[in-house]
Amino acid sequence: MEEDVETRKISSSFLRDHSYATEADIISTVEFNHTGELLATGDKGGRVVIFQREQESKNQPHRRGEYNVYSTFQSHEPEFDYLKSLEIEEKINKIRWLPQQNAAYFLLSTNDKTVKLWKVSERDKRPEGYNLKDEDGRLRDPSMITMLRVPVLRPMDLMVEATPRRVFANAHTYHINSISVNSDYETYMSADDLRINLWNFEITNQSFNIVDIKPANMEELTEVITAAEFHPHHCNTFVYSSSKGTIRLCDMRTSALCDRHAKFFEEPEDPSNRSFFSEIISSISDVKFSHSGRYIMTRDYLTVKVWDLNMENRPIETYQVHDYLRSKLCSLYENDCIFDKFECVWNGSDSVIMTGSYNNFFRMFDRNTKRDVTLEASRENSKPRAILKPRKVCVGGKRRKDEISVDSLDFSKKILHTAWHPSENIIAVAATNNLYIFQDKVN
Amino acid sequence: MFLTPVVPHWPFYNLDTMFVRGLKRKCFDGEEDIEGTLAGIKAIPSYNLQRQSLLDMSLVKLQLCHMLVEPNLCRSVLIANTVRQIQEEMTQDGTWQMIHTQSTGQASLDRLVSTDILCRSSREQAEGKHVSGYSAFNKDFEGDQAQDSSETMSTASSVQAPRNLQSNVWEMENPQENKGNFQKSLDQIFETLENKSPNSVEDLFSEVDNSYYDLDTMLTGMMSNTKMGHCDGLETFSSPTATASNSNFKSDLNELDHIVEILVES
Description:
The structure holds two protein chains of two kinds.
Chain A: E1 8-12, E2 27-32, E3 38-43, E4 47-53, E5 67-74, E6 79-81, E7 86-88, E8 94-97, E9 105-110, E10 115-128, E11 152-168, E12 178-181, E13 187-191, E14 195-200, E15 208-212, E16 225-230, E17 237-242, E18 247-251, E19 263-265, H1 278-282, E20 286-289, E21 295-299, E22 303-308, E23 317-320, H2 329-334, E24 344-346, E25 352-356, E26 361-366, E27 372-376, E28 393-394, E29 404-405, E30 417-420, E31 426-431, E32 434-439
Parallel strand pairs in A: 28-29
Antiparallel strand pairs in A: 1-32, 2-3, 3-4, 4-5, 6-7, 8-9, 9-10, 10-11, 12-13, 13-14, 14-15, 16-17, 17-18, 18-19, 20-21, 21-22, 22-23, 24-25, 25-26, 26-27, 30-31, 31-32
Chain B: H1 12-24, H2 34-64, H3 73-93, H4 96-102, H5 116-125, H6 150-153, H7 166-169, H8 180-196, H9 200-205, H10 215-219, H11 253-265
Helix pairs in contact in B: 1-2, 2-3
């Protein structure tokens, strides 16, 4: 594998002052843009922080570009729903980048109810020498102007500004869990627990409902939508996952309302593992298309599965993330950890998949060699530029020196959000309110 | 309206081991000898208790959803499905009746099986012993509670088969135990569920009043004498160990009064 992707940590926790970790700083989403030059994070306080990779220096080719803060802005504010007397959290649930089409960068960010399109642009020049106003901006007395001049652009300190260009509101009754940009770059979808809406970027007062699984009688509700994504190449195809462990692939060409799926992916239940928690742990927390568009990856509580779009009756690969938790399900149910929603990501070549776990552990699986590794994102265990050491959880019996026993795991330290650079072996791992960026070891 | 149910802080490890143990002994062959039957009896209530505890825990979780921020629908649906699953299994087992008889005089939830006949017959078989209620929370799952259930052993059989005598497993001869708060807690849960709508589950998804209570109390040391916030419910007992290892409750109103007396004094 890229077991030697046992990466070197180049920087830790850009974001916050760790002595005063507040809940608003908890990172809730991480996403690279399409070139990998930018990395966006959203947090529970409604802020978005964008990092930019610095240009590689020719003088020091061995030193890879580091990520530095590029822009910070408040994307969403807390709101109050007066009808229901409920607060609307400002937590950023998802960020998705649009492909770059000009000098500016565009991203979508969403909280539970509202999606916003942000434009992030640079300004490094400013005009000087106006005729009608002086350098301070005060208007000049027209009678005092005796000559004309052409304003010139002078360089200034780089300023990065983020402006909200569109606000897509009031279309979701339930909490938005996913947004996905379509490959046509003109539309995108937003999915909540029961409905999926299709938007055009230019139109904010209208959206099309393409999936609706709300039962006529809410008593009969037994299943919700947990994640949704467009196919990377086919703009008519998308998938959505459910809390019952199923994935539906829909084709928007068949009908306006895609309530009937084109394909239905479900693995038959293993009767020997049946318990009262079977359904809960089968609930899919994330679904991602491979870059090739041929496979989808799903994450449920204990496993990651890779499915071939051409085979609906079972996944082609199943990877155990932390099977040692299977005997702890009741306790995890009691403390609500069983409802944690872990995400999963592909690497650029679709050969390695990565997902998070507890105790600040995250796991990588090489699909070709079938090898896997557990790594830890913590400052204590890794110094900058040191190679990460593989970790191991000891299940029972004698615990070796470097192993950690299941009962010692810290379940408050969960890695739910990770991201992988689109073409290089650079990963971003969010551990509560710290962001870790790891890079491939350079020879 | 909301009570503060008592959820004991089980040790992380023990609870799951007990669950595993209970599940393993689920399929019990009723034709074994008395000793085997004894062991079976000890294990079977263990499974039922665990299942009951899971049910209670789930109901608590559903109620805890009603907070300032809109509850997570996915979580609520999953918990509700778990509750349904347990209820269905208990209905098949015939144990669901137990809970129902404790909700004194109230209209039954739709999915509850009519219980009166079952209860009566089991009472008769128990030779005048009380058919008591259920155990909301019980720390001791080892099944070594002093159960005066010798009469039931002869009719012990698989948990799967619906048995009238299932109710006798809950039978208890310890009127002085302080278990009233658990019983009443659960009663209140069912009360609130029933009062809302014909179907308890549906209401859990609809808008509800924000009855505030001390969430921290709920999630942390609930066994200690903590404030209940706005809740009208009972105060918890100071120590979980004070509660006996018994699993049964009497439906006797006098008993309830007795308990309330104790609470008021404490």
